[in-house]
Amino acid sequence: MKITIFGTGYVGLVTGACLADVGHDVLCMDVDADKVARLEAGDIPIYEPGLEELVTHNTAAGRLSFTTDAARAVEFGTLQFIAVGTPPDEDGSADLQYVLSVARTIGQHMNDFKVVIDKSTVPVGTADRVRHTIDEVLEQRGTSLEFEVCSNPEFLKEGAAIEDFSHGARIVVGTDSERVRELMRDCYGPYIRLQEKLMFMDVRAAELTKYAANAMLATKISFMNEIANLAERLGADVEQVRRGIGSDPRIGYHFIYPGCGYGGSCFPKDVRALTRTAGDVDYQAELLSAVEGVNQRQKQTLFDKLERAFDGDLAGRTIAVWGLSFKPNTDDMRDAPSRLLMESLWRVGARVRAFDPEAMDECRRIYGQRDDLTLAETREAAVEGAEALVICTEWKVFRMVDFDWLKTRLGMPVVVDGRNLYNPETVRRAGLMYYAVGRGDSLHQPV
Questions:
Q1: What is the C-alpha to C-alpha distance for residues 233 and 439, in angstroms, rounded to an integer?
Q2: 354 closest CA partner among 332, 384, 329, 328
Q3: How far, in whole angstroms, is CA 14 from its chain's centroid?
Q4: What residues does 403 pair with on adjacent strands?
Q5: 67: which strand partners?
């Protein structure tokens, strides 16, 4: 099939590379000429395991190409995927200006039947707005052409996106058209040979499914963080609680790891957008508001624990930070807990020495050169000259540590573990003050 994808961001590039890899002919369109030039040269602007190899291989094979020519892009594919950004507006709602801009572009240049596919995460009712926008443009052109609009939300986890696209649990398509159903079966045919994962439903149900899925996962995280905060005050070990409840198959172990809050490009934005959508139809989504509130409070946990450890005296101190991305296997720092931590430290006059396996360039892009920020080349270099260590991201490289060595490097024996990577007793036996999430911090006095 010939497939056009508007947008070469995270979703667009993964979708294009994966569809090309199973034999489709894919053209990715982006208005950013520099970005397109980089992609054509094999320079991938985001970090995602396996993506660079996938793009390079399929570009060389001639199945994946890039363009800034909108007319060519519309002409190219019968399937027109919209995979552009939907950033949060000031009121928390999803900003659809880029989605509707693509819809206008399709309407301006189409000359035959097209299926317009909303791949971006969009509010319920967006397909209707896309259809209306294309109809308006066609009317202005004085022409009448047949087209369909369907919803095909993405369910990709950063750090495992290729695996999710290729072997995900479901492929949701919202449409009431049998013609669209057949075309989407052809599109995803290579991925459903062994298992029928295509789920057809109403367009609005498909749009809501994406938001509901992310809101449910965010809810599990915030719930477990609430339990962790309660366990901390009651003298219980939340890791034992987690194993106890996770053994119940109705609950399971996924997304019940307590920590310093969720971040990234999806959960924060989508929970806020769904809350706003509820308000638009005169419904107060109290649970969703609480999920967001708990998460914002949880991100402050790392700084609060440091303040407790140093009895509020952080000015002039140097703090090592391991992990800058919001999760492992990505360089994405959007809404990352590390950002709130570092910015809080800077406000009170502390300095930061940080290391992350992939997000160093992203950190430089966000914060530039600062006298109170040093980006170290290794995890070991990050702790040199630091008085305390804070772990923000559970990268594998941080999971095994010689605590005796660590104690000799830190000016004060303080470790704040925002991801509960270590056994508290092992750390404490090395003479370190260990502050985790829901694991008995109240037993310790300031240093």
A1: 9
A2: 384
A3: 13
A4: none
A5: 29
Q: 292 and 409 in contact (C-beta within 8 Å)?
A: no
Centre a 10 Å sphere on the Cβ of residue 133 and count the other Cβ atoms it contains.
Answer: 22
What Cα–Cα distance (Å) separates residue 390 from each residue in 72, 301, 323? Answer: 50, 11, 9
- Give the pair of three-digit tokens for residue 240: 């034992």
Q: Residues 200, 201, 205, CA angle at the centre, nearest 5°?
A: 140
Could you confirm whether 266 is annotated as catalytic? yes
Nearest partner of 225 among 441, 437, 442, 443, judged by Cα: 437
Q: Give the amino acid at 55.
A: V
Q: How far is CA 15 from CA 153, 264, 323, in A?
A: 11, 19, 28
Q: Who's near 315: CB < 8 A, 6+ residues apart?
A: 348, 349, 350
CA dist., res. 228 & res. 440, Å (int): 10
- Other Cβ atoms less than 10 A from the Cβ of 201: the count is 16
pLDDT per residue rounded down to tens, the chain (447 residues): 999 999 999 999 999 999 999 999 999 999 999 999 999 998 998 999 999 999 999 999 999 999 999 999 999 999 999 999 998 877 778 899 999 999 999 999 999 999 999 999 999 999 999 999 999 999 999 999 999 999 999 999 999 999 999 999 999 999 999 999 999 999 999 999 877 899 999 999 999 999 999 999 999 999 999 999 999 999 999 999 999 999 999 999 999 999 999 999 889 999 999 999 999 999 999 999 999 999 999 999 999 999 999 999 999 999 999 999 999 999 999 999 999 999 999 999 999 999 999 999 999 999 999 999 999 999 999 999 999 999 999 999 999 999 999 999 999 999 999 999 999 999 999 999 999 999 977 444 444
- CA 164 remoteness from chain centre: 13
Catalytic, out of 150, 260, 266, 392: 266
**How far, in Å, CA of 214 to CA of 209, rounded?**
9
